[in-house]
Amino acid sequence: MSQSFRQSQATLHTWSGLLLGWVLFLVFVTGTIAFWRDGMNRWMRPELARVEQPMRVLAGTQRFLERHAGDAKTWYITMPSAQTPGAQLFWIPQPAEGAAPRRGRRDNQALIDADGDPVVARETRGGEFFYRFHFDLHYVPVIWARWLVGVASIMMLVAILTGIVTHKKIFRDFFTLRRQKGQRSWLDGHNATAVLALPFHLMITYTGLVTLMALLMPWATVANYTNEAKLFETLFPFVETAERSGRPAPLTDLTRIVADAERRLGGPAGFITVSDPGDAVARVSVTRAPTSMLNTRTPGLAYDGVTGALVWQSPPPGGAAATAGVMIGLHAGRFADTVTRWIYFLCGVAGTLMVASGLVMWTVKRREKLPDPERPYFGFRLVEKLNVAVVGGFPLGIACMLWANRLLPVEMASRAEWEIHVLFLGWLAALVLTLVRRAQIAWTILLGSTGALLALLPFYNLLWTDRGIINSILTGDYLPAGVDMTLLVFGAAFVAIARRVATYQPKARRARRSRPAPEAAIGGWEPAE
Amino acid sequence: MTLLTLILCIIAFALFGLSTHAHHRRWFGGTITSAGKGVLRGPAWLALALGFVCAVAASGWVFGPILWMGMVMLGAGCVFLFLNLAPGRFERSK
User: Fold this and answer.
1) Cβ separation of A192 and B74 shorter than 8 Å?
2) Same domain, A138 and A106
3) What residues of A are in contact with residue B73 (Cβ under 8 Å)?
4) Which of A111, A128, A135, A507 gives a 20 to 30 Å CA spacing to B22?
5) Are residues A69 and A26 in the same domain?
6) Which class for A161: exposed (0-12), middle (13-18), buried (19 or more C-beta within 10 A)?
7) Domain range holding A309?
8) Could you list the residue ranges that cross the membrane (chain B) (predicted)?
């Protein structure tokens, strides 16, 4: 391979990694947390007991819906499990004559708890926030966000591939980590996080693009399907529903239908749709839980809502649909058991570290060559400030948000939104700090306060909630305990890095501005969530 | 079986790691010959292959390969951290 080719790939690697690197960092952080989406859904509602008997919750759900939405057009019920806070449900009311269909969210949804009663818990988006932010960001129109994330993912894929081409030595130097060697240590750390989890990085970036493929590359569907409804039907087969008859008929017991469906599907039920409940034409469809299959587009069954007889089975998926479904399944890791989920999470942490160390390395490399280290050129200062503000600031925002989840008054209006506003306020504060303080001080303050905030959360839980570490472990409920312990570890890691940054003395020229100690990346602990 | 997969992956990467010059010197002293490398790397590949068998036995043909890939990464990560952070037997004091 000619040197110039390698050189051009190196340039491509640098710039495709840098330009949207900060977006990638956000996507990696939130995506990594979103592997524990259900865990965070539970952790952020500490009032709720673990679901022990899903069918009991389902029975309560049916009671609730019959009482509050007996004449609805459709009910949607997410089947509860020990991992979820309860049964999340929403319903669509009968369309009023002449009125446009309403897209409300407040008054037509509920959460049913382990006892089968509607939940009285703090209002929060829970883990759903991280999941949505991962591809929808926040405060921006969804379509822009997805384009931005999509383009960033393409650049990520380019960065990974060019990284492999440029640095083919990374495989030979697989086990190498030179410590306390400045730039070389940064490079080794960057390589380690990249190569150790390389299969994950390739998989997650490629399949991430697959989840957005209809948006990024619509031509295949445009060429093959003139009718969008037909496409939808091919991808998500569903049973035709009859016109509402107006003859009332009681809905059969949903638990009986779900038990039958779980037997026929060969796995737990995930999602239940009831159309025209209380009418003679009522239909109940049940799909298998994506937690039990690799393909995220799971098979379904439909039952007559009055007699409970099986009336429809989803056709086996086509090759292309199954391929896409499996790729999305691999990306989201919904199937993952505890061990696999931890591996997903750790790989996500490695990816976050890779992005963060890559961003910081851009300045590390260039700092040596600055003509006047006291007054770096604009681009250098921009990257440096952005690094501190994003890599240091965003985790602080998340820590603030988790505290807001605990501390905001329960009766507060639009409390769930305010939790998120607090995240951005915390992040804004980090940005301001970045602008008024030099990098080393800003890094120290941001990393240190993030670490302190994260590490103190488990102690708050221990004292003021029912789901502190000790209580959770004693009752065998390891999910909230796991979140707490992870927070402790990350808190300690952030504080440790902050200490290293604070005590770092650049070796060379004396009055130089400094960066976090290069050895900070070595332990694998870097600003990341 | 899951645990066995991880153990096999750790063994495999420990052997791979010790077949590199730097780590060989840190742990055994002296340099490694190319024959010595082969002695370490052959069993390493074998352990990886056995790990695959165990993973499939543990989780079936759909989830087994995913589990194996995950364990390969996890095993490599464990070995990487250990080899680099633990003080080697023949390490020169810094």
Assistant:
1) no
2) no
3) 196-197, 199-200, 343, 347
4) A507
5) no
6) middle
7) 54-120+238-314
8) 38-59, 66-86
pTM of the shown model: 0.90
* Most B CBs within 10 Å, among A195, A327, A343, to test the B interface: A343
- Do A113 and A142 lie in a common domain? no
pLDDT tops 50 at residue A511: no
pLDDT of res. A246:
83
Residues of A244-257 as b/e, b for ≥16 C-beta within 10 angstroms? beeeebebbebbeb
Q: Considering only CA atoms, give the Rg of chain B.
A: 15
Q: Do A177 and B76 touch (CB under 8 A)?
A: no
Considering the domain architecture, whether residues A32 and A154 belong to the same structural domain is answered as: yes
Q: Any idea which of A10-14, A27-31, A217-221, A258-262 has the lowest mean pLDDT? A: A217-221
Q: A303: closest CA among A351, A353, A269, A337?
A: A269
Mutating which of B80, B81, B83, B94 best tests the A interface, going by the most A Cβ atoms within 10 A? B80
pLDDT (mean) for B75-81: 92
Q: Does B7 touch chain A (CB under 8 A)?
A: no
Task: Give B77→chain A minimum CA distance, Å.
Answer: 6
pLDDT of residue A525: 38
The pLDDT of residue B80 is above 70: yes
Q: What is the reported pLDDT for A214?
A: 83
Range of lowest pLDDT (A158-162, A266-270, A314-318): A314-318
Residues composing chain B? 94
> In A, which residues are within 8 Å of B72 by CB distance?
199
- Calculate what percentage of chain A has a pLDDT beyond 90: 49
For every residue of A75-107, DSSP letters joined together read: EEEEPP-TTSSSEEEEEEPPPPTTPPPP---ST
Q: Are residues A464 and A355 in the same domain?
A: yes
Q: How many domains does chain A have?
A: 2
Residue in chain B closest to A326 (alpha carbons) equals B62
Q: Do A344 and B74 touch (CB under 8 A)?
A: no
Residue A320 counted as domain residue? no
Judge if A188 and A250 occupy the same domain: no
